[in-house]
Amino acid sequence: MVNELIGDEDFTLFPDLAVRPLGGSVIWANDESFAEKENLINPGPSEYQPSTFGHKGQIYDGWETRRHRGEPGDDSAIVRLGVPGVIRGIVVDTAWFTGNYPPAVSVSALEIAGYPPAESIAERTDWVSLIDRAQVKGDSRNPFPITDENRWTHVKLTMHPDGGVARLRVHGEGRPDRELLGLGPLDLAALENGALVLDCSNRFYSSPNQLLYPGLARKMGDGWETARRRDDGNDWVRIRLAGPGLVRLAEIDTSYFLGNSPGSARLTGRTTDGTEVELLPRTPLLPDTRHRFAVTPMAASVEEVRLDVYPDGGLARLRLFGEFGG
């Protein structure tokens, strides 16, 4: 069983707010002579094939800059988070970089309104430091817990002075742009709106955080899948909603799950005073199907939802449409 996420020392249980499937983008880098900056936020671990050369040299699944050869200056890349939010920890992964990793790195952040050009963001001088210049190891995952409680939209990774980084993971909690809330239908279970997986029974094949990703799943691995149960129990996941609200419509999506989708599912809410309420009774599910269910209107808002699947299996997405308040 996964430990309670809130307060857990392992910040990597929080979703990666920068990863490409969440909409992250590497918008700028001052140099990418040997390997492209976009690799920093690719999902999955970095891959490597020795003695695989392109016209720029050995091919690396990461971001690699040229040698400075004593010239002053450092190399930086800027990532626009797919989900702006509070950062709980950062991993600077130097996998496969052995003789060409940076001796030290630093990470800073900004909250930026609107969509200014990348060049103007790179020229800003008000970046806030999250990780002061710190030594890193080659071919290693270098973790850095973060205690800052501010909301950020962009992070800047700086290598001192140059080298290669395979992946940049920015783990945290989504925080929406409050000016946009209430302007249309709201998914109370979306990471980008501030929802978060608190706990689950099993994450053998994939993370339950993917249930709350935006967009449609593109393959079976984009969802949450549990191991096969060999007992009389069932699997479940607990979700803290974006805020206390009234759920009007539930979407339980089993897309791409064929012989491994759950047989049925149930949704239970917890109100702000701790009362449990049934949002959706145990209901049969079909494989590879986007199910949509009307939720009986509740008199009180719920702040947390538990999804039970029977007995086990995989889901692509969970959507809980409604509005704040109630």
From TrEMBL:
It catalyses: allantoate + H2O = (S)-ureidoglycolate + urea. Its EC number is 3.5.3.4. Keywords: Hydrolase, Purine metabolism. Pathway: Nitrogen metabolism; (S)-allantoin degradation; (S)-ureidoglycolate from allantoate (aminidohydrolase route): step 1/1. GO terms for molecular function: allantoicase activity. The keyword Cytoplasm does not apply. Pfam families: Allantoicase (PF03561). It comes from the Bacteria. Residues 23-173, 194-323 form the Allantoicase domain. Gene3D superfamilies: Galactose-binding domain-like (2.60.120.260). PANTHER family: ALLANTOICASE (PTHR12045), INACTIVE ALLANTOICASE-RELATED (PTHR12045:SF3). Belongs to the allantoicase family. This is Probable allantoicase. It comes from Nocardia aurea.
